[in-house]
Amino acid sequence: MSFKLIVFDWDGTLMDSEAKIVACIRDAFADVGQPPPSREAARNIIGLGLSEAMAELWPEADDAQRSLVAERYRYHFLDANEIPSTLFPDARELIDWLVGRGYLVGVATGKSRRGLNEALEGTGLGDCFHATRCADEAFSKPHPEMLFQIMGELGVEGSDTLMVGDTEYDLQMARNAGAGALAVCYGAHERERLLKLRPLACLERLQDMRPWLERGIVG
How many domains does the structure of the chain reveal? Predict the structure, then answer.
Protein backbone atom coordinates (compact mmCIF):
# COMPACT_ATOMS: atom_id res chain seq x y z
CA MET A 1 0.00 0.00 0.00
CA SER A 2 1.65 3.18 -1.21
CA PHE A 3 0.00 6.52 -1.96
CA LYS A 4 1.30 9.83 -3.23
CA LEU A 5 -1.90 11.86 -2.91
CA ILE A 6 -4.40 11.83 -0.04
CA VAL A 7 -7.69 13.63 -0.64
CA PHE A 8 -10.02 14.39 2.26
CA ASP A 9 -13.69 15.07 2.39
CA TRP A 10 -14.35 18.13 4.57
CA ASP A 11 -17.66 18.02 6.48
CA GLY A 12 -17.80 15.01 8.76
CA THR A 13 -14.21 14.01 8.02
CA LEU A 14 -11.97 16.96 8.91
CA MET A 15 -14.61 19.25 10.40
CA ASP A 16 -17.36 18.47 12.89
CA SER A 17 -20.14 20.39 11.18
CA GLU A 18 -23.03 17.92 11.18
CA ALA A 19 -25.15 19.78 13.75
CA LYS A 20 -24.89 23.04 11.81
CA ILE A 21 -25.66 21.44 8.44
CA VAL A 22 -28.70 19.61 9.77
CA ALA A 23 -30.05 22.73 11.51
CA CYS A 24 -29.58 24.86 8.40
CA ILE A 25 -31.33 22.32 6.17
CA ARG A 26 -34.30 22.18 8.50
CA ASP A 27 -34.45 25.97 8.82
CA ALA A 28 -34.31 26.37 5.04
CA PHE A 29 -37.31 24.13 4.52
CA ALA A 30 -39.23 25.93 7.24
CA ASP A 31 -38.47 29.24 5.53
CA VAL A 32 -40.24 28.14 2.34
CA GLY A 33 -43.21 26.68 4.18
CA GLN A 34 -42.27 23.02 3.83
CA PRO A 35 -42.10 20.45 6.64
CA PRO A 36 -38.45 20.14 7.62
CA PRO A 37 -36.87 16.78 6.79
CA SER A 38 -36.04 14.52 9.69
CA ARG A 39 -32.62 14.84 11.23
CA GLU A 40 -31.74 11.41 9.87
CA ALA A 41 -32.76 12.41 6.34
CA ALA A 42 -30.72 15.60 6.62
CA ARG A 43 -27.67 13.67 7.87
CA ASN A 44 -27.99 11.24 4.99
CA ILE A 45 -27.33 13.86 2.28
CA ILE A 46 -24.23 15.35 3.91
CA GLY A 47 -21.49 15.12 1.30
CA LEU A 48 -23.66 15.71 -1.75
CA GLY A 49 -23.66 18.95 -3.69
CA LEU A 50 -26.43 21.32 -2.65
CA SER A 51 -28.54 20.80 -5.79
CA GLU A 52 -28.31 17.03 -5.47
CA ALA A 53 -29.09 17.21 -1.76
CA MET A 54 -32.23 19.27 -2.37
CA ALA A 55 -33.38 16.84 -5.07
CA GLU A 56 -32.94 13.97 -2.62
CA LEU A 57 -34.79 15.72 0.20
CA TRP A 58 -37.61 17.22 -1.92
CA PRO A 59 -37.99 14.99 -5.00
CA GLU A 60 -41.45 16.28 -5.95
CA ALA A 61 -40.34 19.94 -6.08
CA ASP A 62 -39.60 21.77 -9.32
CA ASP A 63 -36.30 23.52 -10.08
CA ALA A 64 -37.52 26.89 -8.83
CA GLN A 65 -38.63 25.46 -5.49
CA ARG A 66 -35.36 23.62 -5.01
CA SER A 67 -33.38 26.72 -5.91
CA LEU A 68 -35.29 28.72 -3.33
CA VAL A 69 -34.69 26.26 -0.50
CA ALA A 70 -31.04 25.96 -1.54
CA GLU A 71 -30.69 29.74 -1.34
CA ARG A 72 -32.22 29.74 2.12
CA TYR A 73 -29.76 27.03 3.17
CA ARG A 74 -26.84 29.16 1.96
CA TYR A 75 -28.19 32.11 3.93
CA HIS A 76 -28.44 30.12 7.14
CA PHE A 77 -25.12 28.29 6.77
CA LEU A 78 -22.97 31.19 5.58
CA ASP A 79 -24.58 34.13 7.36
CA ALA A 80 -27.20 33.43 10.02
CA ASN A 81 -26.59 30.20 11.88
CA GLU A 82 -24.22 30.47 14.85
CA ILE A 83 -23.74 26.79 15.70
CA PRO A 84 -19.95 26.37 15.82
CA SER A 85 -18.09 24.00 13.52
CA THR A 86 -14.66 22.86 14.66
CA LEU A 87 -11.94 20.63 13.32
CA PHE A 88 -11.93 17.09 14.64
CA PRO A 89 -9.17 16.36 17.16
CA ASP A 90 -5.70 16.14 15.62
CA ALA A 91 -6.90 17.15 12.13
CA ARG A 92 -4.36 19.95 11.87
CA GLU A 93 -1.57 17.78 13.23
CA LEU A 94 -2.39 15.00 10.77
CA ILE A 95 -2.32 17.35 7.77
CA ASP A 96 1.00 18.83 8.91
CA TRP A 97 2.44 15.34 9.36
CA LEU A 98 1.30 14.24 5.89
CA VAL A 99 2.81 17.30 4.22
CA GLY A 100 6.00 16.85 6.22
CA ARG A 101 6.24 13.26 5.02
CA GLY A 102 6.00 14.38 1.40
CA TYR A 103 2.40 13.46 0.65
CA LEU A 104 0.30 15.63 -1.61
CA VAL A 105 -2.95 16.49 0.16
CA GLY A 106 -6.24 17.73 -1.23
CA VAL A 107 -9.90 18.30 -0.44
CA ALA A 108 -12.93 17.13 -2.43
CA THR A 109 -16.13 18.41 -0.86
CA GLY A 110 -19.82 18.93 -1.40
CA LYS A 111 -19.39 22.46 -0.05
CA SER A 112 -19.46 25.52 -2.28
CA ARG A 113 -16.22 27.31 -3.06
CA ARG A 114 -17.25 30.20 -0.82
CA GLY A 115 -18.09 27.81 1.99
CA LEU A 116 -14.81 25.92 1.72
CA ASN A 117 -12.73 29.08 1.46
CA GLU A 118 -14.32 30.47 4.60
CA ALA A 119 -13.72 27.18 6.43
CA LEU A 120 -10.09 27.06 5.30
CA GLU A 121 -9.52 30.64 6.39
CA GLY A 122 -11.27 30.12 9.72
CA THR A 123 -9.23 27.02 10.54
CA GLY A 124 -5.92 28.34 9.27
CA LEU A 125 -5.57 25.42 6.85
CA GLY A 126 -5.79 27.51 3.71
CA ASP A 127 -2.14 27.02 2.74
CA CYS A 128 -1.94 23.33 3.64
CA PHE A 129 -3.64 21.72 0.65
CA HIS A 130 -2.11 21.30 -2.78
CA ALA A 131 -5.49 21.20 -4.57
CA THR A 132 -9.17 21.51 -3.64
CA ARG A 133 -12.43 21.01 -5.50
CA CYS A 134 -16.01 21.87 -4.58
CA ALA A 135 -19.42 20.77 -5.76
CA ASP A 136 -20.03 24.05 -7.60
CA GLU A 137 -16.88 23.42 -9.69
CA ALA A 138 -17.52 19.83 -10.75
CA PHE A 139 -20.16 17.12 -10.71
CA SER A 140 -21.27 16.13 -7.22
CA LYS A 141 -20.10 12.98 -5.51
CA PRO A 142 -20.26 10.08 -6.20
CA HIS A 143 -19.27 11.22 -9.71
CA PRO A 144 -15.45 11.02 -9.94
CA GLU A 145 -14.89 14.41 -11.61
CA MET A 146 -13.62 16.19 -8.49
CA LEU A 147 -11.00 13.49 -7.97
CA PHE A 148 -10.12 13.41 -11.66
CA GLN A 149 -9.53 17.17 -11.62
CA ILE A 150 -7.37 17.03 -8.50
CA MET A 151 -5.34 14.10 -9.81
CA GLY A 152 -4.92 15.80 -13.17
CA GLU A 153 -3.78 19.06 -11.59
CA LEU A 154 -1.20 17.29 -9.44
CA GLY A 155 -0.13 14.69 -11.98
CA VAL A 156 -1.11 11.65 -9.91
CA GLU A 157 -2.77 8.43 -11.04
CA GLY A 158 -5.78 6.86 -9.37
CA SER A 159 -3.69 3.94 -8.15
CA ASP A 160 -1.52 6.41 -6.20
CA THR A 161 -4.49 8.27 -4.68
CA LEU A 162 -6.38 7.67 -1.43
CA MET A 163 -9.78 9.24 -0.76
CA VAL A 164 -10.72 9.66 2.91
CA GLY A 165 -14.35 10.24 3.84
CA ASP A 166 -17.25 9.60 6.17
CA THR A 167 -20.02 8.84 3.66
CA GLU A 168 -20.79 6.26 1.03
CA TYR A 169 -20.63 9.07 -1.55
CA ASP A 170 -16.91 9.53 -0.78
CA LEU A 171 -16.20 5.82 -1.08
CA GLN A 172 -18.20 5.49 -4.29
CA MET A 173 -16.38 8.46 -5.79
CA ALA A 174 -13.05 6.84 -4.97
CA ARG A 175 -14.13 3.61 -6.62
CA ASN A 176 -15.41 5.47 -9.69
CA ALA A 177 -12.05 7.27 -10.00
CA GLY A 178 -9.94 4.15 -9.57
CA ALA A 179 -8.57 5.42 -6.24
CA GLY A 180 -8.22 3.78 -2.85
CA ALA A 181 -10.93 4.47 -0.28
CA LEU A 182 -10.46 4.91 3.46
CA ALA A 183 -13.56 5.38 5.63
CA VAL A 184 -13.88 7.18 8.95
CA CYS A 185 -16.84 5.97 10.97
CA TYR A 186 -17.43 8.94 13.28
CA GLY A 187 -19.24 11.05 10.66
CA ALA A 188 -22.60 11.13 8.88
CA HIS A 189 -22.93 7.52 7.71
CA GLU A 190 -22.87 4.51 10.00
CA ARG A 191 -19.98 2.05 10.07
CA GLU A 192 -22.08 -0.83 8.73
CA ARG A 193 -23.17 1.24 5.76
CA LEU A 194 -19.60 2.21 4.95
CA LEU A 195 -18.27 -1.33 5.28
CA LYS A 196 -20.66 -2.53 2.57
CA LEU A 197 -18.50 -0.57 0.10
CA ARG A 198 -15.37 -2.45 1.24
CA PRO A 199 -13.00 0.43 2.04
CA LEU A 200 -9.40 -0.38 2.88
CA ALA A 201 -10.27 0.29 6.53
CA CYS A 202 -12.85 2.10 8.64
CA LEU A 203 -11.13 4.20 11.30
CA GLU A 204 -12.72 5.08 14.62
CA ARG A 205 -10.74 8.32 14.96
CA LEU A 206 -9.00 10.61 12.51
CA GLN A 207 -5.77 10.34 14.48
CA ASP A 208 -5.74 6.59 13.75
CA MET A 209 -4.82 7.38 10.16
CA ARG A 210 -1.17 8.10 10.91
CA PRO A 211 -0.36 4.71 12.47
CA TRP A 212 -2.48 3.03 9.80
CA LEU A 213 -0.34 4.59 7.07
CA GLU A 214 2.88 3.84 8.94
CA ARG A 215 1.99 0.19 9.35
CA GLY A 216 0.94 -0.13 5.73
CA ILE A 217 -1.81 -2.51 6.80
CA VAL A 218 -4.91 -2.93 4.67
CA GLY A 219 -7.99 -4.05 6.58
Answer: 2
pTM as predicted: 0.91
| Farthest-apart Cα atoms in the chain, separation | 53
pLDDT in tens, 121-176: 999 998 999 999 999 999 999 999 999 999 999 999 999 999 999 999 999 999 99
Burial of 17-48, coded b for 16+ CB within 10 Å and e otherwise, reads bbebbbbbbbbbbebeeeebbeeeebbbbbbb
* pLDDT at site 73: 94
Together in a domain, 141 and 210: yes
The CATH number of residue 48's host domain is 1.10.150.240
Neighbour count for residue 170 (Cβ, 10 Å): 34
Beta bridge partners of 104: 5
Residue 189 sits in the same domain as residue 124:
yes
